[in-house]
Structure formats: structure tokens, C-alpha cells
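Supplementary Methods S3. Complex input for the iron/sulfur cluster-bound model.
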Amino acid sequence: MNVHRTYENEDIVVFWNSEKCFHAKRCVTGSPKTFDPSRRPWIQLGHAENPEVWQAIEQCPSGALGVAYRFGIDVRFEEDRNRSASYEGETQVGECEYQVMDGHWTIAHTGVRPEYEGRGIAKRLVYAVLEAAERRGVEVSATCSYAQRILGDTQSRRDGM
Ligand code: SF4
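Predicted complex, serialized as C-alpha cells:
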């Protein structure tokens, strides 16, 4: 099963997409205390300095890993509202909404306030919904073009493109 995960500390967010990962393990070589396939979770922040982690991620040949600064923005999954939402303090600055039908989730909209764009927030929002769906064994599709790109990228790999 494909897995989308984010791992955060105070300063950075690490993205991992299992379907892109072909286990070249360059991340492990680059920051062995952060990336350890024998451990769960296999990515743990806080054991190495952020620059080491960032450099290790840049060595990933597959694009399975990504990294962004947090900019003090929190992302929460809000199941009761069929969405994930991002906050600076208590001010909402973005959301990713999905519709539920026959146990299937369809991501319909992802949006971030213009002044907060370019900070990786939209990707965090989509990953939060994908992770929640995966943990529940729910299939996800998207009509939102941004989420489609994230899902389509995964689909392309699955098809061997
Ligand atoms: S370097 Fe990238 S492809 Fe290789 S194991 Fe790490 S995440 Fe996977």
C-alpha cells in the first residue's frame, strides 16, 4: 500500500512517499540517526541537526523525500469537518477539503491564503488527508488539480512511467 507521511520538528517538515522510494538508502548514509529502516517510525527528527537532514534529503534520487520549513504553521486533520486545516496560532491560513461517498474520499479543494503560498503548506494539507485515509484503509481520488498532481505523480510511478 502506498504511504504518504510527514515528520515534523519545530523547524522543518519531512515528506515521504513510499511508492517513489526504491530504497537506494542514500538518506540513510546521509543521516543514519534520522533514517533507520529497522526502526518504526523509520524517519525520526531530533537525532541530528536540521542541515544534515536537509542535505540527506537532497541526495534522495527518487523524489520520495521532500523537506520544507514549518514557518510556525500547524496542520491538523479535522475529520468532523472532512478536511485538514493549517493554522498560524489560531488563525486559519489554509485547508484541504474532501467529500465522502460510499467510503471513498475525493479531495475537492486545496487552498492557502495568498500571503502564505510558497511555504509547502498545501503539500502538508494534502499529505494530512492522504495519511488519514491510508490509516483507515480508504481509497482517495481528487478533483482538486493540486491534489491530482500529488496523486498523479504516484500513479505514474505505479504505471512504470
Ligand atoms: S534515498 Fe530516497 S529512494 Fe533511497 S531509501 Fe531514502 S527515501 Fe528511499
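Confidence is low (pLDDT under 50) at residues 156-161. The chain has two domains: 4-69, 74-158.
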